[in-house]
Amino acid sequence: MRLIRAIFCILVVTVGCKKDDPNPPAQATLVAPAKNAECSPVQSTNGTSSVVRFNWQASEYTDSYQLRVTNLLSGITQSPNTTSTTHTLSLSKGTPYSWQVISSNSKSSKTASSETWFFYNPGSQTSYVSFPAEISSPEPGSSVFRDINNEVTLEWSGSDIDDDISGYEIYFSTSNPPTELLASVNSTVHLRSVSVEVGQVYFWQVVTTDSQGNVSKSPVVDFKCR
């Protein structure tokens, strides 16, 4: 009888805890500035900067957001917090940026990250640096299987407002950052197979070059072969 009562108490406590568990915040959907495009500033603050408005859709189970906007030339990130789904920032003109929204709930330790979009804050420039290549596969931190040829296929995509990407250089190695040039390919190629060994962690990066000689680098991505 004592055993039955003890089990009953444990079940009651467990069910009660599950009932009280908060729902984790959901991922926000980005709206503007548009992906891989030139934005439309709402105000020019001076000769070198302008005000850009960011907008996203509200996400479920969220009571606050962190907007993360990164200058792709300097690497500097602005990270203001807000309870609204809009926010404005003063940004350098003629500069490419990335932006992302992190959803939070004060009752949950979990957060949710939106997609990361690239955009250009316009200035007087006549040539645009390509946006960093976006890694499609393998995804960062993933574990992947080799194919029958003991290879893994690397996949990426590129974007440039001028639409003048001339080619990509793919760096691949077991060291971080990768320093070994795996291949140089033209702008129509977005796949590359590479031999890998089981149990090994690999790092890779894509460097994009346009017809004006502008260069951009993707983040370094790691994956493990199993």
What does this structure look like?
Strands 2, 5, 6, 7, 9, 10 and 11 form a seven-stranded mixed β-sheet that branches. With 226 residues, the chain is mostly beta strands. The chain is built from one helix and 20 strands. The protein has one helix at residues 2-20; strands at residues 29-32, 37-38, 43-44, 49-57, 64-71, 77-78, 81-82, 86-92, 95-104, 111-113, 117-121, 131-137, 142-144, 151-159, 165-173, 181-186, 191-195, 201-210, 215-217, 221-225. It is flat. The protein starts with a helix and ends with a strand.
Q: What is the count of DSSP helices, taking H or I runs of 4+ residues? A: 1
| Residue share in helix | under 10%
Please give the radius of gyration in angstroms. 23 Å
* Largest pleated sheet: 7 strands, mixed
The average pLDDT value, as a whole number, equals 90
Shape: flat
Strand content: over 45%
What ranges have pLDDT less than 50 throughout 5 or more consecutive residues?
Answer: none
Summarize this structure as a short list of keywords or feature phrases.
mainly beta; 226 residues
Structure, briefly:
This protein has one helix at residues 2-20, and strands spanning 29-32, 37-38, 43-44, 49-57, 64-71, 77-78, 81-82, 86-92, 95-104, 111-113, 117-121, 131-137, 142-144, 151-159, 165-173, 181-186, 191-195, 201-210, 215-217, 221-225. With 226 residues, the protein is mainly β.
Provide the fold topology:
Elements: H1 2-20, E1 29-32, E2 37-38, E3 43-44, E4 49-57, E5 64-71, E6 77-78, E7 81-82, E8 86-92, E9 95-104, E10 111-113, E11 117-121, E12 131-137, E13 142-144, E14 151-159, E15 165-173, E16 181-186, E17 191-195, E18 201-210, E19 215-217, E20 221-225
Parallel strand pairs: 2-11, 13-20
Antiparallel strand pairs: 1-4, 3-4, 4-8, 5-6, 5-7, 5-9, 9-10, 9-11, 12-14, 14-17, 15-16, 15-18, 18-19, 18-20
